[in-house]
Each structure stands twice: as structure tokens, then as C-alpha cells.
## 1
Amino acid sequence: MNQLKKYTIIGTLFVLITGTLSHFIYRWSGNNFIVGFFCPVNESTWEHMKLVFFPMLLYSIFMYKSLNEKHPYILSSLSIGILMGTFLIPAIFYTYTGILGYNIFILDIAVFALSVLLAFYSIYKLTLSHKITSCIPLFCIVIFIIMACFMIFTYYPPQIGLFAVPAS
């Protein structure tokens, strides 16, 4: 198995496991203020985007440092993967709940897993394609802005649907 494929599979498992665990860490920490910046503090769609964003960001740093010399396009691929995985959460969630009119717990879990799988599949394919390089600064800025938004909106969320806790 080639090194990129190995890191991609490990990364997928890492994000699935750490993302799942991070769903509970805020509560386990006694609602620690700092932990809330990185882990969901409620059941809103926005907070669930953290399940993908922060574990992928952490693993991407490791993956970049490990594979950059052999795969010079990996930073762009990782950036796109982080953004894709993060924003697939609301895209898929609101699509299926818009069709059904309500959310189903098992489908919510499937949304998370599918978002992670598609993000890492894209990272793998984009890294091999050697087609994306010129947008690295833009991707990094967007990731930094999203990270800042997670920090701010965790405790000061705008009054729009993305930040509301869905009705069960």
C-alpha cells in the first residue's frame, strides 16, 4: 500500500474516532469554556461542523509534515478536504431534513461519516491529480477565518437557523 493511501485511511479513521469522541468531551469536561471552542457545546448544526473541522485540521498538520516532500500538492488538497468535510455537514443535513421534514439520529451519524469519507477521498484524489497549487494562501485564510468563527460563534452565535438546536 502506498504511503498516501495509508495516511488517508488512517486519517479517515482518526477523524471518525476523534470527531465522535469530541461530541461528548465538552460535557465530560464539565462544560469547560476552552474545550467549547473545539468541541460541540450544543446540538446545532454549526457546532456539529466542529466534529470534522478540528480533527481534520489536527490530522492534516501531521499528514502535511509527513508527506509534503513526496507530495508537494498535498497542502491544497488537505485544505480543500477540511473545507469540504466541514461544509458537507450542513449541506447534507439540511438536504435530507428538508426532504423528510425532520431529522433522524442514525442519519445524522451517517452525515458525519459520509462527510469525513468524502473529504478524505477528495484529499487522496486531488493530491494524486497534481492540479491544485495556486490557491494555497486563499485556502489557509479561509480555514483561519472559519476557525475564528468557531471561536466567536460558540459563545456568541448569530440568531439564524445554522446556529439553532434542531427540533427533535
Note: The first helix runs from residue 3 to 28.
## 2
Amino acid sequence: MPATSLSTDQVIDEIFNLLQRSGGEEYFGEAVSKLQHAEQCAYQAQKAGGDEELILASLLHDIGHLLDVEGTIRDERVGVVNHDEIGQQWLEAHGFSKRLAALVGGHVDAKRYLTAVNPNYFARLSPASVETLRLQGGPMDAETAAHFAAVPELRDILRLRSWDEMAKDPDWQGPGLESYRDMLARHLMAQAAA
């Protein structure tokens, strides 16, 4: 995906448009909308003391579901199966840090890893998450899991995965999307200056 020439404000506006447009859409068999899921995930990261890159990665982890780009593999039940890869590529092309994009890109493999190494993890997945796991290749084999365990950002990828699973409460009340605008601007401006 080629790099974009959009300004910081234009990138933020595009993200907000994508998330707000999906605001009323159900999050694939869950009791929350896609926007509520994103906001809850970011809030969990913030509450846990995550740094700004991790909070923003949590907010944007499913952005690949909202994009209409070449290479998407869609399933009407669970959205864009390869949304992790699509999201990572889109974020890198739009000026986000490699670390933030890698956190987004790793959150599906984190589920595949955890179901391979922790038998109790699979039992906690929602039915929709079980279905996406199947479409995403199922639990990792031992060799793939060992390779994934060596990823430099493993701890934060697994933390994001945990918040992703927690972010499905239909009664949750917390900070809305607008509360992340300044954080997005700081991040993108710092990347542009680097």
C-alpha cells in the first residue's frame, strides 16, 4: 500500500469518518457496535496504563474491517478475515509508527497463539470469535507459536488481545472517539517529524 500524502488532520478525519460511519453497525455477532468496540478497547488500554501508541493501536486494531482496499478477504459473517494485515498496511501508509502498526497487525495472531498455548483461553472466546479463529487458520502449531513468542512486542500484543476480548459490553459508558483526537494528532505529528 503506497504512502499517502494526506495531512495529519485529513488522516484523523478519515479515521473518524470510518469509525463513525460504522458506529451503528453490529460488531460481528457481538452486542456492541464496531465504534463501541473500538472505544472500549482503547479505554481498557488507557485504564491499564498503556502508552499512547498502545492506546491508539487498541482504538484502531479493527480498522481493517472498515476499509475497502484491494486484497481484502471478506466473509459476511465475520467481516474482513485478514483485517489485521490490511489495517497494519493502511496505518503504515498513513503515517503511523511501525510499532503501532505491528501491534494492530499482531492481534489476530495473538488469538491464534493464545488458543495454542493456553487451553483455557479458547473456552473464554465468544461464538463470533471462535468462528473468526477458524477462518483465520485456527490455533497455531507448535513451531509457529514458538516463532510468535519471540516477537519483540509480544507482551503488548497480548495485552491488546486481552482488551479486544473485554471490549464487548453493551452497557459500557466511557470516553468517546473525540477524546482521542489530540492523541492521534500528537502521534502523527511526531512520526512526520522523525
Note: Residues 8-101+160-193 form a domain with the Hypothetical protein af1432 fold (CATH 1.10.3210.10).
## 3
Amino acid sequence: MDAVARVEWAQVGAGGHVAWRTSAWWERLVAAREHRAPQRLVHAVLEVAVDGAVQSIDMAPTWGRSAGARRVVLSGPVGSRLLGRCPLFRYELRVVDAPAPPSHVLPVGDELPLPADVLDDLVLVPPLTWGRDEARVGEMWTSNSVVSWLLERHGVTTVGPPPGHRAPGWDAGRRVARR
């Protein structure tokens, strides 16, 4: 049995002013360093439907989350391995029951055929430090990296951020998966 997957693109920081402002300033700095115009930042959300049940990949801090219906796949450090010893600087990669998409999600792309057990491959995701380039691929590891890593492993190479938008970490996931 195959699964049907979609990548949805949520605008970074759309749910809060602090994340939006800090991300916008960070993008301006990166764009200036790379001699290009700043772009809007997006966060990839992979939703997978198997037999009518929809689940998505969520990569977020380990703190401040209710237990809810989620399956934690792995945990990793945020910022540095040393800081990652503290729970405040750790992330979880988890599979959650997918709620209705929030209003700040951009139009979704095409349906992607994937094997029904595609989310089982998440146990193979390297627990790299979020926000660092430990894999030495030229881009930091983020939640976007996990989505692109999973798609690349299953031969889906045509998906990318919407025009005029940038998904930090997207290329890092693809490059790590090709190794």
C-alpha cells in the first residue's frame, strides 16, 4: 500500500512576532552576506496519509509541549552539543496526528506517492545539531532538512520552496541523504 504525501509551506514566524522579527533580521544578514535580496522564509511540513489517517513530521523544542498524540522518533541538540545537555536546548523529531492546516500555510504542491512505511525511515535521520553545519554541506541543519532528507531518500527530488521564498536547511537535508 502506498501513502499520499504533501509538502505544505508555513511562513516562518507567522504565529508570533518574536520569531517573525528575529527570522526576518537573520534573513537580511544572510542575504547581505550572499549579495542577494532577502526572501520570505518558510518551514516545510510533510503530511502523509495512509488509509485515511493523516500524520505529519514535527521538529520542535522538547520543552513546552503536551504529551498528546505523538511518537518521538529522536532527539538532538540545538545550537551546540554542549548546550544540548540542557533540555532547554534540545529538539524532538516526532510524528503527530495532523491537524487542519493553519491560515498562514501557503498553497500546497502536488501529491507525492511514497511507500506507506515512509515515516518509519525517520529513525535513520542523523541527530545533527539544529542550526549548525556539522555535516559540512554548506548549510545548517533544520526541520526543513529532515523533510528534504526523507523525500530525497525516496527519490522525490522535484519539491522545493515556493518561488520567492527560502527554506533554510532544505539543501542540507538533500545533500546529507545523498551520502
Note: Residues 10 and 105 are 4 Å apart (CA to CA).
## 4
Amino acid sequence: MSEEIDIKEMPIDELYELMGEDLYDGYVEEVVEEVEEALSRDMTPANVLTNGLVAGMDVVGVDFREGILFVPEVLMAAKAMKGGMKILRPLLAETGAPKVGTMVLGTVKGDIHDIGKNLVGMMMEGAGFEVINIGINQDVDAFMNAIEEHNADIVGMSALLTTTMPYMRVVIDAMKRKGIRKDVIVLVGGAPLNEAFAEDIEADAYCRDAAVTVDTAKKFMAIRQSAN
């Protein structure tokens, strides 16, 4: 493959640029090769993540929000991101590289929709967050256990049915009873939700799509860090 020879001769900034472009286009194999090439030049895993994969996913997020990219294309980009992350994740764990934050993510009890939730998870991971995706139809105990076990900074709850939306309040009330509500950022999303509902159940924010979720999560984490 001629591109393989090319990437070995590329300056690192050009390699990162190409990595971002290939991620945008959903080219898994190319992204994996480019991650390996960057690591072979003694770039740190955190450097490759930030300047290559996260930078690429940032562009995906912007274009998704502006309607240039659609869900199938974002899923392809996320798949390419996952390919690169498969190599970087164990290395990041070894080096103790700082992560932006930890998010527990799940669809609430009675609801089995997960495409939107999974997209949020992929894009949050693409932004440098550790994501614990607990799946669909999750009850209050599942959320509470995951928040506690992973010392979550953020909990994201999803619902696509109007009948399951109220269960989000059940989880938030449980967090209040446990005395951890103020320690955890609560983001909610799903087609039937809106800002008024999020305010009513005392969530921190309603996020209409995956790109907005990433922006909102980053904003809340920055506020939290500046307060410490």
C-alpha cells in the first residue's frame, strides 16, 4: 500500500491532519496505521489521542451539529475512532494519562432504544471522556451502582418513550437521597424530551443530540475544574 510509505515520511503535524481526515471518512484501517506510526515516533498516547483522534472527532461533531454529516456517517467515524482507541486505551491506562472525565450512560427502565445513546457514548469517548455504557432498560440501582463504582463525574440518561421519561426523576431523587446529586452532572436526552422537562426533574441540562452532549459535558467539566 503506497500510502503506508507516504505516512512514514510525513511530518507529525501532517500525519495528525491525515488521521483526522481518515477518521472523518470512517477509514478504520488507515486510522489504525496512522496511530501506530505516530506511536513509533515516540509520540505519547495522550498526544496521539488529543492531536489526532479527538481533533478529528471535534470536526465530526461540528459538521454533525450543522447538518453536514448524518448519523450513519458519524457512526462510521466513531468506528474508525474505536479502531484507534483499541490501540491507545491500554497505553493510556499504563501511563495514567489524564482523562477529561468519567460518564455513566444508560437508557432508563422500560426503554430499549439505544442508537442515540450509543452515538453519545462514541462521541464522548472521542472527546477524551471515559464512558461506562450500562445499556438499555436500566433501573435506578444499575445507575446508582455504576455511578458509585466508577466515581462518575457525569450521568447521562436517555429515553425515547414518553412513558419512560418520568423514570429519570426516580434516578435523580435516588441521587439526592444518597447525598451525591451535587457531585454528579446529570445530562438527559431523547426525542420526546425538552429543556422544560429537564428543568422540571432537576437535571443539569437537556442535550438534543450527541454533538450538543459533548459540548455541554465539556462546559460543565470546565466549570467544575475552575471551581476546585
Note: Residues 19 and 31 are 6 Å apart (CA to CA).
